[in-house]
Amino acid sequence: MNADIAAAFADGPAFIPYLAAGDPNYEASLEYVEALERGGADIIELGLPFSEPIAEGSTIQSAIVRSLAGGMTVGRYFEFVEEADVDVPLVCMTYYNLIYQYGDEEGPAPFVRRAKEAGIDGFVVPDLPAEEADPLREACTDHGLDLVFIVAPTTDDDRLERLVSLSSGYLYVQARLGVTGARDDVSDQTTASLDRLAGYDVPKAVGFGIKTGEHAERVVAGGADGIIVGSALVDIVAEGHESDAPVGETANRLEALCRELKEGAVAGSRATTPERT
Amino acid sequence: MPESNSKRRSERKFGDYGGQYVPEALMPAIEELTDAYERYVLDNEDGFMDEFRERIRDFGGRPTPLQRADNLSERYGSDVYLKREDLLHGGAHKLNNALGQVLLAKYMGKERIIAETGAGQHGTATAMAAAHLDMPCEIYMGRRDVNRQRPNVFRMRINGAAVNPVDIGRGTLKEAISETMRDWATTVETTHYVIGSVVGPAPFPAMVRDFHRVIAEETRRQAEEQYGRLPDAVVACAGGGSNTMGIFSDFVGDEGVSLYAVEAGGSSLSVDEERGVAPNSASLSTGSEGVLHGARTKLLQDGDGQIMESHSVSSGLDYAGVGPELAYLVDEGRVNAVNVDDDAALEAFHRLSQDEGIIPALETAHALAFLEETDEDLGEFVVVNVSGRGDKDLEAAIEETEKRDLPNAPDMGVFE
């Protein structure tokens, strides 16, 4: 397990914001990512845009369209990671074809090597289930990077066991069925998923639909070790882009929402019963 | 004959192609579908395949004829036979798979059907099958295709299906598939996604092929009865590859039968890397290996792996990927991947209409154009799969013909 990612879960709940790198353009996006850290990010999931993001809802899909239209490529992404002035661990969230195409007869190893060199600490690949993940997992193990698997509400107990054993860094607990996107309430499926995972000694970060500090508090109080927030933050980027707002103003709004989410998560951990922690 | 478990499992992949590259939320549904496919389709549990064969006969109108095309035969100096899938109910081979999958969904206890469509043939077939079997149905279709294929949009709606236009991207099949996968990820517990071609995660490529295998079974039997032997060559158009794999499936083992998959060469085989556009849909001929919509296969993509916008005069072929088994058979040298351009396809569209009184789908016109374009000797007994009829394409055919100087176009003045 990557030491930096492990450390992020050591002192209380981890707040893990997501942005698509290069949304809406390279320079603004760099400032936005830095604002996430100022707002209290413990880990940042940084999207490498793929043209067919089948697991994303319309918010993140639009972010990906903006980023690609702004000239984001795999090569530029690695430059972006190198240039981003943040100290927290970075997790690359992308789709398998981009990893696969970067590779050669060694499989995905060249991508993992280049990612590590740029400063990436782990991966989330939503279209790579356990069945197809061996080559990437081996490359990650060889280079000391984490490969995070997603657990869905539909995942049965046998699969759950397997995903827990394969996942490193943390488990990405999908809060509800469907695709990414902010919601106005926390799903009952979240509580059920966390209850099922309570016996497993692995950091559990909940994503899909968390939007406010109050959501964050409830999810952490329900047993999560971390929260992942994407669409609610991407919404701020989109609004700033559409209204031509100054980059600094959008960055301040991102920082403020991050602070609210982080504080919510911390408040949730205080509410957690001792046997849960 | 039921096959052994180990054999079945191996069909998860075709060489390095295929697999299951989908979000975890869908994996349990894919396992459930695999189990249902093996029990009902491969083992005929509860008489599933008997019911399928009865319905595809009585509701669908099978068997379709294998017809000698006298004028084409004279033109090409060989016996050209047409497998008339255009005469299947709905006007395309697509009903075989749609009926099979909707029936399977019913056996599985699913409550809702979703599907995507490019040209509208698969959407139409699915809407018909869903109405026939009394299942609620929603179809996703790219906005551009909705505009290009209005008659099929109405046919779907008349059959009671909701049609959801997809605005993202260029609004074609690729975007519609992504959108249908999103719906499925949300509703997977109650909904079956009827994938429209031999693409997608396992078990779809093998299962869709098996529902279309009836084309090959009939062709084989009819060839023996009518001609006394198997054909020298079988020619079919390939977008995703469902009519191709349907008619090829029972001939793969017969080395004496040459198999030709005809792709859409579009306006050019070159690629505009800068704009991420391939002005063709020839992923077997010009694509490279990658992962899209649940499977490893041949794709039109840029150096990074971003999927390119494809093009064909036929919206049914306008897709940046192809079925994994077909990609494998091409790599193995068993299937010849060839292509013809938009102009040649339109010429063939008019030729079949004028010479044989059959208006083919623009997809099918590609297969027919190959007979005209190729220098290869296809042998004396050639079968072409007429995958569908061209009624749905009339508006597109008129518009595209007007743009060109085709040697055999009718007087276009009457359309003005």
Task: Explain the overall architecture.
Chain A: Pathway: Amino-acid biosynthesis; L-tryptophan biosynthesis; L-tryptophan from chorismate: step 5/5. Chain A: It comes from Halosegnis marinus. Chain A: Tetramer of two alpha and two beta chains. Chain A: It catalyses: (1S,2R)-1-C-(indol-3-yl)glycerol 3-phosphate + L-serine = D-glyceraldehyde 3-phosphate + L-tryptophan + H2O. Chain A: The alpha subunit is responsible for the aldol cleavage of indoleglycerol phosphate to indole and glyceraldehyde 3-phosphate. Chain B: Residues 60-388 form the Tryptophan synthase beta chain-like PALP domain. The complex is a heterodimer of chains A (277) and B (416). Chain A has a single domain (3-271), classed as TIM Barrel. The longest helix of chain A is centred in the C-terminal third of the chain and has 25 residues, at 247-271. Chain A has helices at residues 3-8, 26-38, 58-69, 74-83, 96-102, 109-118, 134-143, 157-166, 188-197, 213-221, 231-242, 247-271, and strands at residues 14-20, 44-47, 90-93, 122-124, 146-148, 150-151, 171-174, 204-207, 226-229. Chain A has a 9-stranded parallel sheet with strand order 5-4-3-2-1-9-8-7-6. Chain A is built from 12 helices and 9 strands. In chain A, helix 2 (26-38) runs parallel beside helix 12 and helix 6 (109-118) packs parallel to helix 7 (134-143). The mean pLDDT of chain A is 93. Chain A has 277 residues and is α/β, with parallel strands linked by helices. Chain B has 416 residues and is of the alpha/beta class. Chain B has 2 domains: 26-59 and 94-205, Rossmann fold, CATH 3.40.50.1100; 66-91 and 213-404, 3-Layer(aba) Sandwich (Rossmann fold). In chain B, strands 3-4-14-9-10-13 form a 6-stranded mixed sheet, sandwiched between helices. In chain B, strands 1-2-12-11 form a 4-stranded antiparallel sheet. Chain B has a 4-stranded parallel sheet with strand order 7-6-5-8, with helices on both faces. In chain B, helix 10 crosses helix 11 and helix 14 (342-356) crosses helix 15. The radius of gyration of chain B is 20 Å and the shape is globular. Classes of the chains: A alpha/beta (277), B alpha/beta (416). The interface between A and B is large, with 43 and 36 residues.
